[in-house]
Amino acid sequence: MGSTEEKTNYLSDEEIPLKSSPVAKNVLHSFDCETAAVRSSPDTRWWKTNNIRIRPLRSAYIVLVRAKINVLLPFGPLAILLHYLTGKHGWVFFFTLLGITPLAERLGYATEQLAFYTGPTVGGLLNATFGNATEMIISIYALKSGMIRVVQQSLLGSILSNMLLVLGCAFFTGGIIHHKKVQVFNKGAAVVNSGLLLMAVMGTTFPAVLHFTHTELHSGESALSLSRFSSCIMLIAYASYLFFQLKSQHNLYGPLDEEVDGEVEDDSEIFAWEAIGWLAILTVWVSILSGYLVDAIQIPFCVVVGWCMGKPMDLNFKLFETATLFITVLVVAFMLQV
């Protein structure tokens, strides 16, 4: 241990030579030379080169092998082989569906890894965007093939699943895991999101009301024009929401201060450039499999894309689907206000 005076003398004996004596300069010079020699040694260069070679292999193992759901990945290439060798559309549809399932999960994983480097707000936005990439790609292929009702039903099912099943599971599992404390969320952000949901439902309700009330003589053309106009307005509102979330009022979407009971945040398992690369690769592979899936068989964006393709994709979701969506949004908005 030693006394305070001994520690002071020991520190002063180290500091004085390092500041002024010629011996200290020689020592520092020799230390720099040794450090440079170590950095440029063949062993160090070999380690760096070997690390560069190992990183992609490790990243591929983490993304493509380690998760248990990846056992379904071979069904994707198998579906392509069945498409060209047998032509049995039922098996092609089933195997393609199995092959796309792990790709969608891995897209979410790569997005979560990228969120470690972008922050919670941008990370959540990326997760919402790439989380729906699979459904959007499939919808575009189905829209290209003229399957309007398939696109409408799949998008409606996705909305209901995210708003009811996902939100309900979050409340349920959060109550089980954190049963000793009250769960909190950002009420201001919830109010903004609820307003956007109500505006989106309004955009899908007007075409259905126009169609079933026979307000116009040519209801089909009028509903289609109204759907395209509403879709453009919703896309503009979404762009404004992104500016509101990321720039003007980004403090509103900051993480809430919560008590953490001995929990340690996980570190990222792959680098940011690796996550971006895997997002691109997985998106391309999903796009390839989606073509075979549609051959065997999100809303405003699909309407605008269908408009560009010359397909009459509209927001007329029929009376039952529109009423279901409207009631769902009201229930979710009410739950978030409590």
UniProtKB/TrEMBL annotation:
Task: Please identify the protein, giving its name as recorded.
Answer: Vacuolar cation/proton exchanger 3-like
The way this protein sits in the membrane is described as: Multi-pass membrane protein
Q: Which residues form the Sodium/calcium exchanger membrane region domain?
A: 91-246
Q: Which residues cross the membrane?
A: 63-85, 121-143, 155-177, 189-210, 222-244, 278-307, 319-336
GO biological process, alphabetically ordered: intracellular calcium ion homeostasis
Q: Which Pfam family, just one, is annotated for this protein?
A: Na_Ca_ex
**Gene Ontology molecular function, alphabetical:** calcium:proton antiporter activity
Q: Which UniProt keywords apply?
A: Antiport, Ion transport, Membrane, Transmembrane, Transmembrane helix, Transport
GO cellular component annotations, sorted alphabetically?
endomembrane system; plant-type vacuole membrane
Q: Where in the cell is it found?
A: Endomembrane system
